[in-house]
Amino acid sequence: MEITFTKVATDRLQKFLKPGVKMVLDFDDGVGPFSKEANCTLSVAYNLLFVNQDADLHDFGLVIPSNLGDVYAKPYSKDQMDEKMTIDVNEKYLRYSLSGQNGEIDSSMGVKDLA
């Protein structure tokens, strides 16, 4: 399993990639310290979080390599993912998206700087 950040996404996210920061791809299901409430629709929702290196990540045992470094995720969220995924930005609407070889996973992925 791997994630590729496009050049546009990499350029826009560069400001969050500071030393001592980890990336978390959080499946918004109400589980873990970063998901305050579950998404109330039937759609799949993810947030890309930038957290301090000492953040409690015990719920995030899945480590996904990417071209920007390791991305932590909840192991069971793997069922919603594809083996090869891409994070991109729709420049017209400034929305981040997560997609895989089987299509779009989340067309409006949140990005949060919690570091």
TrEMBL record:
Residue span(s) of domain Core: 1-113
SUPFAM superfamilies, A to Z: HesB-like domain
Pfam short name (any one): Fe-S_biosyn
InterPro entries: ATAP_core_dom (IPR000361), HesB-like_dom_sf (IPR035903)
Lineage: Bacteria, Bacillati, Bacillota, Bacilli, Lactobacillales
UniProt protein name: Core domain-containing protein
Gene3D superfamilies, A to Z: HesB-like domain
